[in-house]
Every structure is written in structure tokens, then in C-alpha cells.
Design brief:
Elements (H helix, E strand, L loop, with lengths): L1 H17 L3 H12 L4 H7 L9 H37 L18 H15 L3 E2 L5 E3 H4 L25 E3 L5 H10 L4 E10 L11 E11 L4 H16 L5 E8 L2 E10 L16 E10 L1 H7 L7 E7 L1 H9 L12 H4 L3
Parallel strand pairs: 1-4
Antiparallel strand pairs: 2-3, 4-5, 5-9, 6-7, 7-8, 8-9
The chain binds adenosine-5'-[phenylalaninyl-phosphate].
């Protein structure tokens, strides 16, 4: 029966050569490899063979089926091209017609904002340092001066993994420790962008995953005025020179003193609207002077070194830049939203 199969295979290949149009091709498909085709029926007869011959027959049958299918597809492409060539020669195809527009992809709005932020900090001498998304409890909290049971841990609702002490970072600040430990005692100036995760109630302003861009400068004689000047400069470079910037006292366990940076509301110009909750100001970043405990945990002597750090949210910044009123659009995968950027 194997011989019969081989003969049928050769016959099928020859017949395929002779098929010169779509109709003949479909006829060939039915006759040989269709559900009731000759090859299919012969393959089904495997049960008539003595058991020891079946595996070899089955293997060869599968090969032949694959090869005939491939030969069929190749012949179909050939016939299509021949048809096209004939149409071109006879002038039935108008090659001067404009082509169909090609759909072009684009960058996600968060990526666009991140790149603007990188460019501005690069102009100010900050390098990008990438830290990890999956962190340990110690680096995410303890080394940042947030020991277990410190009430400040309430500020970050955390996604813990099933492995004790391993979590998804709630902010990019643990990257400060990793960068310091890599570079100490050299002065550093880095930004640390990355995705953060918080087990929060999703709302128009809060997502459970969002980007942050952290910044860290450590060196000699870095003062609070350097932080204020640098942040003001950044805000004006991103939002325009006419913007007003305000600093408010705040609290973060890993900075002392701590500040929050506000921008006069882009939408209402400071008069008060629903976006700025009628205050005329929008918060865009947290910042402060690196706490001596954190400097020491990073490998710097706080008697000799000082530094500043900041953290900002690119999605919130994108919302301000484009007047987007709901953060849920960012990861909702609605192409109508994404196409606008
Ligand atoms: C922090 O996470 C601090 N680590 C920032 C910091 C770094 C302060 C260094 C001082 C020194 P905060 O929780 O405020 O702070 O978050 C910082 C920014 O992340 C916010 O201003 C906001 O833009 C963004 N952000 C925070 N939570 C969310 C959320 N749920 N959805 C979207 N963006 C968020």
C-alpha cells in the first residue's frame, strides 16, 4: 500500500503542474487532498495494514500530505502572479491609481511625555538609571527610613507577592538606594523612570499602575535652593516660561525637609476650575533633601554629602498638558483615545 501511496503522490504532483487556473486548482484540491480526495482516503486505510507496518506508513503519509499542501499553496501563488502579469500586460490594472493608506502606529501618550521629561533632565545633566519593578520590602520601605510599623507605610497600599518580603514597587524611590549603592562615594545625578503599582481604588485621578520619574542628585554642598531652582527650571522647560511655580511644605520619610511642587492651573490660568479643585494650583511632584538616614543607607557619609530627590507622575503631567480629565483612558486600550496623540 506504501507503493500505491507513492504512485498516487507522483500522480498528484503531475496533475498539479497541469492545473493552470483557479478552477482547475480547486478541482485538484478536491480530487487529491480534499475530505474525500484520493490521498485522504488512502491514508485512512492505514488500519488495513499489519500493525508493524502502520508507523512507517503513517509517517510517510503525513509527509506526503504536508508536501502536497505546500505544493498546492505554491501553485496557487504562481497562478495568482501569472494572472496579475497578464492583467498588467493587457492594461487592466491602472498603476497610476493612488495606493491604500497605510495605518501607522504611534507612541503612547505616556511614552511621549516620558521622552520629553528625559530630554529636559538630560539637558540638565541627569542620566537615566533603570531600577527593578519587583522589589524587596527592605529597599522599598525600610532603607528609605520607613521601618516596619512606621505609620508612613499607610501612604502606599502595596501589592505583595506570594513570596514573603517581595512586592511590586509602590514608587520609584527604592531605585535611589540601588543607584547610590552602585555609585557611592562618587557624586551622582540620575533620573529613575519606571512603572509603579499600588493597590488603590481606581478613579479619575488614580490608577493601580502608573509611571513615575524619580530624580536624585548627591554631591558636596547641594542645598535646598538648588532643589527649588532645578525644579522651577524643569517646570518652565516642560510647561512654558510663563508658568508660575509654588512650593509647599510636605512630608516624606525619606526627605527632610520635604516639599510639594505646584503649578498654576493650565486650564483656568489660576482662576479656579474643577480640575484644580478651585484652588488655582495643580500638584505635579513631591521632592525634598535626601534624609541623612537614606544617604547613609546608600553608602554616603551625611556629614560630607548632601542631596535632593524628587518624584513625579508622567500620566498626571500628560493630563495637564492635554487637558485629559480621566487617567483611566491611559491603560484602557481604546484606540480612539490613543490615536489623538
Ligand atoms: C511618592 O511616591 C514619592 N516617592 C515621591 C518622592 C520622591 C518624594 C522623592 C520625595 C522625594 P507620591 O505618592 O505623592 O510620592 O507620588 C508621586 C507622584 O506619582 C504623584 O504626584 C502622582 O503624579 C503620581 N501618582 C501617585 N499615585 C498615583 C496613582 N495612583 N495614579 C497615578 N499617578 C499617581
Amino acid at each position: 500500500m506504501l507503493d500505491q501511496l507513492e504512485a498516487l503522490y507522483r500522480e498528484a504532483l503531475e496533475a498539479l503542474e497541469g492545473a493552470s487556473d483557479d478552477e482547475a486548482l480547486r478541482g485538484w484540491e478536491r480530487e487529491y487532498i480534499g475530505r474525500k480526495g484520493k490521498v485522504t482516503l488512502m491514508v485512512r486505510r492505514v488500519g488495513e495494514l499489519p500493525p508493524e507496518e502502520r508507523p512507517a506508513f503513517g509517517r510517510r503519509a503525513n509527509e506526503i500530505k504536508r508536501e502536497l499542501q505546500a505544493a498546492f499553496e505554491q501553485r496557487a501563488r504562481q497562478i495568482e502572479q501569472e494572472k496579475l502579469a497578464r492583467e498588467l500586460e493587457s492594461g487592466a490594472i491602472d498603476v497610476t491609481l493612488p495606493g491604500r493608506p497605510v495605518q501607522v502606529g504611534r507612541l503612547h501618550p505616556s511614552t511621549q511625555t516620558l521622552r520629553r521629561i528625559y530630554d529636559i533632565w538630560a539637558e540638565m545633566g541627569f542620566q537615566v538609571y533603570l531600577s527593578r519593578d519587583v522589589e524587596d520590602d527592605e529597599t522599598n520601605f525600610t532603607l528609605l527610613n520607613i521601618p516596619p510599623h512606621h505609620p508612613a507605610r499607610d501612604m502606599w497600599d502595596t501589592f505583595y507577592t506570594t513570596r514573603p518580603g517581595v512586592l511590586l514597587r509602590t514608587h520609584t524611590s527604592p531605585g535611589q538606594i540601588r543607584a547610590m549603592r552602585e555609585f557611592a562615594p562618587e557624586p551622582i545625578r540620575v533620573i529613575l523612570p519606571g512603572m509603579c503599582y499600588r493597590y488603590e481604588q481606581i478613579s479619575a485621578r488614580s490608577e493601580i499602575q502608573f509611571y513615575q520619574v524619580e530624580g536624585l542628585a548627591v554631591g558636596h554642598n547641594i542645598r535646598l535652593t538648588d532643589l527649588i531652582g532645578t525644579m522651577s527650571d524643569f517646570v518652565r522647560r516642560l510647561f512654558g516660561p510663563e508658568r508660575k511655580v509654588r512650593f509647599r511644605a510636605s512630608y516624606f520619610p525619606f526627605t527632610e525637609p520635604s516639599l510639594e511642587v505646584d503649578l498654576d492651573c493650565i486650564l483656568c490660568g489660576g482662576k479656579g476650575c474643577s480640575v484644580c479643585k478651585h484652588t488655582g494650583w495643580l500638584e505635579i511632584a513631591g521632592c525634598g533633601m535626601v534624609h541623612p538616614v537614606v544617604l547613609r543607607n546608600g553608602g554616603y557619609d551625611p556629614e560630607e554629602f548632601t542631596g535632593f530627590a524628587f518624584g513625579m507622575g508622567p500620566e498626571r503631567i500628560t493630563m495637564l498638558l492635554y487637558g485629559i480629565d480621566d487617567i483611566r483612558y491611559f491603560w484602557g486600550n481604546d484606540i480612539r483615545f490613543l490615536e489623538q496623540f
